[in-house]
Specification:
The structure holds 2 protein chains of 2 kinds.
Chain A lengths: L6 E6 L8 H12 L5 E6 L24 H4 L8 E4 H6 L11 E4 L5 E4 L1 E4 L1 H9 L3 E4 L1
Parallel strand pairs in A: 1-2, 1-7, 2-3, 3-6
Antiparallel strand pairs in A: 4-5
Chain B lengths: L1 E6 L8 H14 L3 E7 L20 H12 L3 E4 H7 L4 H7 L10 E4 L2 H9 L2 E5 L2
Parallel strand pairs in B: 1-2, 1-5, 2-3, 3-4
The chains are: A alpha/beta, B alpha/beta.
């Protein structure tokens, strides 16, 4: 769709429910996937809660959109950077997050983890490396 | 430089649309280009022509409409965000069986692809939000 390939980073900073930011951010990611850009997602602050497993929104009457994260690999969105300090500050570990994988077409479609845990300092480098940063 | 602008908070509740307006005005005055302003989340509410702010306050929608006309700006309201929040042009009103539209002069409603396209084409994408 476009000859220019830019590095896009979608920064997710908010809890999945309570406000609409997370849900509408995911809508941008899914539409953006059609543009064949180099896409990464970052999760920091309360945004790390978006990836937690076992989300149940029934009592709140809200749509549980968390399964969509596991489908991102099909959209060739395979780099989900999660900030270690944000996990630590909230008493979370990698085990609390969904197991999100993608099939690596360059490696015999082997299933590989999409989540990359990085330190706050490394996250700064990830951000500095982007052409476009959209923050939610 | 070519700027793409995102406004992601609602008018009056939040300063985002004011800051974006001032930035766009200043950038244009300096000879820069603003390829598009994309309104997302509650930012879509900037584009309703039915708001009636107090007369002694700034008129946010009218300011954008005027600036848009002066500089031929592309003011785009995200359709998915707009539908949730009751912002319609006549085409959408007809399509959805609604009895009215409320989009202000100078704005248009379109898809999220416009945000991505803007970000690809602009030298800098700047978000005004929370």
């Amino acid at each position: 769709m476009s000859e220019v390939i830019k590095k896009f980073l979608y920064v997710n900073r908010k809890a999945p429910y309570g406000t609409i930011y997370a849900q509408e951010a995911l809508e941008v990611v899914l539409i953006g996937a059609a543009f064949d850009q180099d896409v990464s997602l970052a999760f920091l602050d309360d945004g790390v809660f978006q990836l937690t497993k076992g989300q149940d929104t029934k009592a709140a009457g809200l749509k549980n959109f968390s399964p969509t994260f596991r489908a991102l690999g099909d959209y060739e969105v395979t780099k989900l950077y999660v900030e270690q300090e944000s996990l630590d500050e909230r008493g979370l570990t990698l085990d609390d997050l969904q197991d999100i994988q993608y099939e690596d077409e360059d490696d015999d479609y082997e299933e590989k983890p999409s989540i990359i845990v990085v330190s706050r300092a490394e996250m700064a480098n990830v951000m500095a490396d982007q052409d476009v940063v959209l923050s939610f | 430089m070519k700027f793409g602008i995102v406004v992601s908070e609602g008018p009056y509740t939040h300063q985002a649309s004011d800051s974006a307006y001032n930035f766009v005005k200043a950038a244009l005055a300096k000879g820069h280009e603003v390829s598009r302003v994309f309104f997302y989340h509650d930012g879509v509410n900037v584009g309703t022509r039915l708001s009636i702010p107090p007369q002694d306050d700034r008129q946010i929608q009218a300011q954008w409409t005027a600036l848009g006309k002066e500089h031929d700006l592309d003011l785009v309201i995200c359709i998915a965000a707009a539908q949730r929040r009751g912002l319609l042009d006549q085409n959408e009103a007809d399509r959805q069986g609604k009895d009215a539209n409320n989009i202000a002069d100078g704005f248009r409603i379109s898809g999220l692809g416009q945000l991505i396209e803007m970000s690809i084409q602009a030298d800098r994408t700047i978000t005004f939000g929370d």
